[in-house]
Write a structure and sequence with these properties.
The complex is a heterodimer. Helices cover about 45% and strands about 25% of the residues of chain A. By secondary structure, chain A is of the alpha+beta class. Classes of the chains: A alpha+beta, B mainly beta.
Chain lengths: ~700, ~150
Amino acid sequence: MDMNAYLSMFIDESNDHLQSLNENLLRLESEPEELSIVQSIFRSAHTLKGMSATMGFEDLAALTHEMENVLDLVRNSKLKMDHFIFDTLFKGLDALESMVQDIVGGGSGKADVTQIVASLQIILKSDYSASKAAEAAPVSAAAAVSTDSAGAMLLDEYQSSILLQSIEGGLQVFHLQVTIRDNCLLKAVRAYMVFEVLERSGEVIKSDPSVQDIEQEKFDFSFSVFMISNVSLEDLQTQILNISEIDAVVITALDTESLAVLNRAPAAAAAEAVSVPAQELKAAPALVQEASPSKAKAGGAAPAAANVSRTIRVDIERLDTLMNLFSEMLIDRVRLEQLASEIKRPDLTETVEHMARVSSDLQSIVLKLRMVPVDSVFNRFPRMIRDLAKSLDKKIDLIITGADTELDRTVIDEIGDPLVHLLRNSVDHGLETVEERIAAGKPDTGKIYLRAYHSGNHVFIEVEEDGRGINREKVLKTAIKNGVVTEEQAGKLTSDEINMLIFAAGFSTADKISDISGRGVGLDVVKSKITSLGGNVTVDSVFGRGSRFSVQLPLTLSIISAMLIKLGSEKFAIPLSSIVETGIIRKEQILNVHGNRMIEFRNSIIPLVSLSKVLDSPDYNENDEQETEIVVVRKGDKWAAVMVDEFIGQSEIVLKTLGKYLTNIEAISGATILGDGYVALIIDPNALIK
Amino acid sequence: MGEELKVIVFALGNEEYGIEVDKVRTIERLSPITRVPKTAAFIKGVINLRGVVVPVIDLRGRFNLSETVPTENSRIIVVAVADLEVGFIVDSANDVIDIDSDTIDLPPEIVGGIKAKYLRGIAKLGEGRLLIMLNLSEVLNKNEIIQLEQLEV
């Protein structure tokens, strides 16, 4: 089978599962008693393991397997989560992530995971010793053995020494748990057939119930066997499963360690094992294979049944092609409409009108396809903040709002790194340590707000923290020392300008250089990256109270709601987000205040702006009219009334830039293509308010 | 023998001009142009080119030639130079020819009122036919537009 065909699917799905593992582990950390979260973590891990094993990424599968073992214990309430376990699991996740990244980069996904595996095994073992042998399964192999041996099956000294010697002699020792289908009529015969296979492949050391009992049908539907084998585990399994009416066989390779465990914790293991529900057998870390899948026991591990959202994955290039093709169709649609109006055949007109409606629906869908919620960037931050907080020994709450704000895919791909920088900066430089916070009379847990929202023609992403704020004196001193500004210039700077100095290249006020940030690269990189995206970054700060970094991003291809208006023959769009309301005024309502035209609006006097003058309208002048439509727009807390000719209506529009040739056009922030294929300019209301 | 160049030939008034074919993205019929306020007079506005908003300039206006009313033959040649994508309104565009780069001579100081810096050279096509090769990066030079705008104000 050609695995390459499935590789991209594997990568996508692995990333999804890793993400959900991350999220769920974080949730679990805050509510450790919530076992349902463990269930979903377990499912993700299990699916991931299955997928990577299928794809032949052995290291990935092996590590997931170990993590799954730990989770299994947690899931069955045999293990309590603690910090060490969380940290180890997170480390494991990181390792998994880097392996997946390696695979993305064309690598083989191999990595040295022995250390993490070792820690995971320590968790498994320490659990064992801590709970005084009460639990089954310290080591993966032994786990299967003890949970599976549904019956107090103990090896006597003689048998265990044989096994031990065999292992030491390099022979394979297996423990088998064979289950015969429960509607089997002649189970003794089936069992006999199994034993025949076993005798052929090696030597049976011990069986439970005893061979005699089995021959006399004195057993339920399962029995277990210890044997020394000369064939491989897989071969043995296939051979046994070839016997009909065998429901399942669980084979575990034993080593000296697991044997020792068996000997040390006999009684308890046995007692525990009896109570283990059936489905855990399948989830147990041994090699399990269903002989008849249709008969899978209810409740058996059904991987990935949860969180299956009804989505498909599409190559972004295809979306681009779709969008371009659709635009071309729009032009033809307009042509068809013209032809239909010339030919004047009712059924043609009707069909064309219907097509027009369908295509405008289609248009909005096609455009929305490219939009991605910023959540796809934000979702990795809680984990990052958690790790940072731990390593810096600070207490931090990350509060995310507006994660559903949509941005074009191309922008989404680019803003991740700058945001990481800003957040790291906030954690490291912004927030104080717990002691400092208490000394400053603040709650010991610092808060970082990460907000995203649309405003006008931009998306704003803010990182705000209630930390120490920017010390302007210190900033100035450093700036002068590093040669960013001269002393003379420094005297003239406004406080905002001083704040902006922290974005200068080679600037860092951190007294100590830390791992997190403060190498003097960072904020200037953030700034240049965001500027290259056509955005802007600013900072507000109150010393002692905190800082707010605000990243303004253009909506290169985003969709906004806008009011379409007409000025004579020309159409323009005004972003709905800055419109307060619309209305009509009569000529006599216009007041003249100090040479400026104003109107009274909601008990205040606001300026009246002539859009036709601002835009040099060739064929419209509101002075000719007795009544004029106005649009009241707002910029912050300032309002203005804008006179227009006619309202067309509200519409969802796609923002397009005017290209690099036309930049900085006054009062115009971009363009959009209307449903009829014509270009309409988008008015920047901020420019209308002085 | 020099390099062979494939050139799109278009007309402005009585002159024939050439642009290398690899700089030309597409040639379109005149479509409705949306005026962009407060720009230089030769910037006619923007068009919708299959979903992309492209600025359009009148090449006659750009070269200070008298502007004419568009005809049935008028075309918009969309060129892409560096990261700029701009449409030129020309009187007609009707040929693609191969020329030998050796036949391109340096331009004289003034050709038909167009400053030499906008020109790359003049190619002789035989039979007395001359083809004026444009220097696109100068034609699209934005600094000059800014200066022009300042002059207009």
